[in-house]
Amino acid sequence: MTVLVGLIVMTGMLVIVPAGLALMEVRGLCAIRRLWPLGAVPGAVALWLPRGPLATTLAVLYALATLALALYAPVHLARTLRGPGALGRASAETALLTALVTPSVAALALVAERSGQQLLGFDLEILALTVPHFHFAGFAAALVAGLVCRAADGPAARFAALSVPLGTLLVLVGYFVDDWTELAGALVLTAGMWAVARVTWRDIRTPEAGRLTGGLLAVSSVVLVATMLLALSWALGEATGLPHPTLTWMAATHGLGNALGFALCSVLAWRRLKETAQ
User: Fold this and answer.
1) Which distant-in-sequence residues (6+ apart) come within 8 Å of 114 by Cβ?
2) Architecture per CATH, 3-277
3) Which residues pair with 122 in a beta bridge?
4) What is the pLDDT of residue 177?
5) What pLDDT score does 244 carry?
6) Cα 164 from chain centroid?
7) How many CA atoms lie within 13 A of 24 on its CB side?
8) Regions of the chain with pLDDT less than 70
9) Where does the sequence pass through the membrane (predicted)?
10) pTM higher than 0.85, yes or no?
11) CB-based contacts of 170: which residues, under 8 Å, 6+ apart?
């Protein structure tokens, strides 16, 4: 695992996921969020150790923390489906439920990669890149899509909240099927993320939000357009054989942009929006 990928993953583990859980306002997540460092810190340490039993053990501790999130998802789903207005909340809650589940996919890949074992036929390089992908294109993307849909419910916001989980699922399925399925997932995910950017720019980034918050929202929206274009170019190249960026280049551009320009800026902005609303 390269230094850059390790730093990106650490940002997801130690900053984006716990901060995102605080933004969800989902009853029952408080205990998991308080205990999150017990899994996230060992997971972060595992990134920098040589592959072997110790790194694997620490990665397993992180996997257990992500499993707790994934197991809470059906509990939250049952609560969401009860009460008035359940249908209207379905789009946003679908995205937030996806955010609860995707870190476990990243953690499973991390355990396999740190143990030096291929998983389901995927080599160690792909597993290493799967870890940041499902922290950011999985957790962060679904989280922000759900928050946007909660705050600015409308056709574009509902489309974003449903297409981001669908695109994430199709990309995951494409790992096992073929590059064309992965390309389809990239197309759907890109459409969803561009919808997130559009609604954020138009409806969330208001004068009332303040200059700093508006700036953070603007950066996250603009970065999404660029990083998802890179994702499309890579997926298209993989499917067709056309020239496309290397995985190393994708980590340095698409990965870093999503981690800092999109995910971190979004989480900071939504935290400020939450504080303003209180």
Assistant:
1) 46, 49, 51, 52, 55, 56, 58, 59
2) Up-down Bundle (1.20)
3) 119
4) 79
5) 82
6) 10
7) 29
8) 1, 76-88, 278
9) 6-24, 55-73, 94-112, 132-152, 159-177, 183-201, 213-235, 247-270
10) yes
11) 181, 182, 184, 185, 188, 189
- Both structure tokens of 242: 């056309």
Q: How large is the angle between the packed helices 179-199 and 211-240, nearest 10 degrees?
A: 160
Q: Which pLDDT score is estimated for 51?
A: 93
| 205-213 long-range contacts, CB within 8 A, separation 24+ | 209/269, 209/272, 209/273, 209/276, 210/272, 210/276, 212/272, 213/269, 213/272, 213/273, 213/276
pLDDT of residue 124: 85
Q: Which residues pair with 119 in a beta bridge?
A: 122
Phi, psi of 3 (to 5 degrees): -60, -45
**What was the pLDDT predicted at 263?**
94
The 10s digit of each residue's pLDDT in 14-57 is 999 999 999 987 777 888 888 999 999 999 999 999 999 999 99
Contact 59, 1 (CB under 8 A): no
